């Protein structure tokens, strides 16, 4: 089955330039202007490092402002108590983290549990960094620990991004989390996207691009099933087409068992009934799509599963789409997806050239450098991504189509037919952007752009 693609168009002159006065005026009118003086003072008070705050610290301040505003009286009392007891809380959380992962860190770095505890206490009390950031950003490394205040953390960014998701207007709904609606949105805007063959809801077939007899019309290729509104790769499965068995087409699941077309679709229908209970996903809708094939130049970086590049796009209010950082994600073994939670590998991508940097993979709880792909033996660093300019253009065009969305992290597959959008993430995990290279997002204009939006919508 051929995958619909959109013709990549070159960036117009001045694409990366600042916003025109007209667009900026439209954005400011739609989002209300500058925040009140009292709100600016509260933000300043709640920002770590108030004398010389980093861009990441300013976003941390906005996350605290939102947390305060959304809390009731009892909740605000708890926040005050938590702030007063910050040193004690940092000491306690550091002790718990060392008990949980200290042995893994010591095995990789040689740092004693006492040294880890001391570093964690300082990071928590001085920079308000949670213990998970110590591992994710490898802050046990001195060169990274010196830049600790510049890293943007997951929970605080998610809080700010969720607020902006509700506050910033959109032109046509921008249905990122609803994957069937996202596919239709992409097609309206001429963006290459993975096609959906079937959709099941609570065990029933609700959408079919294969007619009334989908089992008979199922394409003879590898297939992929995933929740319609899931994240993090949870609930996904890859079904490998193995050819004819006893005169019928057959597919193999991750358990190694063979399934006929009827059996395969019956199993997917049954899985759709259990999604909320098994994975904590909001609904019980599941999609069936054809598996995309990696570009021929990328086959040495995977045992067969699809690789994607996460392109973190952003814009200033009224400005043009830009790219902050990009990371290439590679699956390992028979994992159905390339997510870190499945043991995947992540490598930073040089935005100017599209070449991969030094990759990382978890060893226990600790991300560690990895030179070669464990399944193929291919050296990762220095590998050139094909169609890199077209990939960046697709990501910027997708953000532009969403009008005033401040940021989206796009997962893009690079195929022989061109780059294809797999999904968009309104709350793109900053870990994926920062962890591989160690470059904090404060080293890019990204946090300043989000801060500018917050000053308009608050």
Q: Could you characterize the architecture of this molecule?
A:
By secondary structure, the protein is an alpha+beta fold. Helices cover 38% and strands 18% of the residues. It has 15 helices and 14 strands. It has helices spanning 21-31, 37-46, 55-70, 73-84, 86-109, 113-127, 131-136, 142-145, 154-167, 179-188, 214-217, 261-279, 388-401, 430-434, 446-457; strands at 198-201, 204-208, 223-227, 237-245, 248-252, 258-260, 285-290, 308-314, 322-330, 345-348, 359-363, 366-370, 407-415, 418-425. The strands form 3 sheets. It has a 7-stranded antiparallel β-sheet with strand order 2-1-7-3-4-5-6, covered by helices on one side. A 5-stranded antiparallel β-sheet has the order 10-9-8-13-14. Strands 11-12 form a two-stranded antiparallel ribbon. Strand 4 and strand 5 form a beta hairpin. Helix 3 (55-70) crosses helix 9 (154-167), helix 3 runs parallel beside helix 15 and helix 5 packs across helix 6 (113-127). The model is unreliable at 1-31 (pLDDT under 50).
């Amino acid at each position: 089955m051929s995958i619909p693609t959109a013709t990549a168009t070159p960036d117009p002159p001045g694409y990366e330039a600042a916003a025109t006065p007209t667009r900026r005026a439209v954005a400011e009118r739609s989002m209300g202007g500058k925040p009140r003086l009292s709100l600016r003072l509260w933000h300043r008070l709640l920002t770590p490092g108030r004398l010389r705050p980093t861009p990441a610290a300013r976003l941390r301040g906005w996350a605290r402002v939102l947390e305060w505003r959304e809390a009731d009286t009892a909740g605000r009392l708890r926040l005050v108590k938590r702030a007063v007891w910050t040193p004690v809380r940092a000491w306690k959380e550091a002790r718990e983290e060392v008990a949980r992962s200290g042995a893994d860190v010591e095995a990789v770095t040689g740092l004693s549990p006492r040294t880890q505890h001391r570093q964690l206490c300082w990071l928590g009390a001085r920079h308000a960094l949670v213990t998970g950031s110590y591992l994710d950003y490898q802050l046990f490394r001195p060169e990274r620990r010196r830049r600790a205040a510049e890293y943007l953390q997951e929970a605080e960014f998610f809080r700010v991004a969720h607020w902006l998701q509700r506050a910033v207007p959109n032109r046509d709904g921008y249905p990122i989390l609803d994957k069937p609606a996202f596919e239709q949105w992409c097609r309206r805007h001429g963006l290459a996207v993975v096609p959906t063959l079937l959709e099941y809801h609570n065990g029933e077939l609700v959408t079919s691009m294969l007619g009334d007899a989908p089992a008979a019309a199922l394409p003879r290729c590898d297939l992929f099933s995933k929740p319609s509104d899931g994240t993090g790769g949870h609930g996904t499965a890859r079904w490998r087409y193995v050819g004819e068995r006893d005169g019928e087409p057959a597919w193999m699941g991750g358990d190694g068992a063979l399934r006929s077309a009827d059996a395969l679709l019956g199993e997917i229908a049954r899985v759709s009934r259990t999604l909320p209970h098994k994975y904590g996903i909001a609904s019980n809708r599941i999609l069936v799509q054809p598996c995309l094939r990696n570009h021929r130049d990328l086959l040495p970086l995977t045992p067969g599963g699809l690789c994607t590049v996460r392109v973190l796009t952003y814009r200033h209010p009224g400005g043009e789409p830009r790219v902050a950082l990009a990371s290439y994600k590679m699956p390992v073994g028979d994992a159905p997806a390339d997510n870190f939670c499945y043991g995947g590998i992540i490598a930073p991508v040089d935005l100017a050239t599209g070449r991969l940097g030094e990759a990382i993979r978890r060893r226990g709880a600790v991300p560690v450098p990895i030179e070669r792909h464990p399944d193929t033996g291919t050296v990762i660093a220095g590998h050139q991504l094909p169609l890199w300019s077209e990939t960046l253009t697709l990501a910027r065009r997708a953000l532009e189509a969403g009008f005033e969305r401040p940021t989206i992290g796009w997962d893009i597959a690079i195929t022989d037919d061109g780059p294809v959008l797999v999904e968009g993430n309104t709350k793109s995990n900053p870990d994926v952007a920062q962890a591989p290279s160690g470059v904090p997002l404060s080293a890019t204009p990204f946090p300043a752009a989000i801060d500018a939006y917050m000053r308009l919508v608050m």
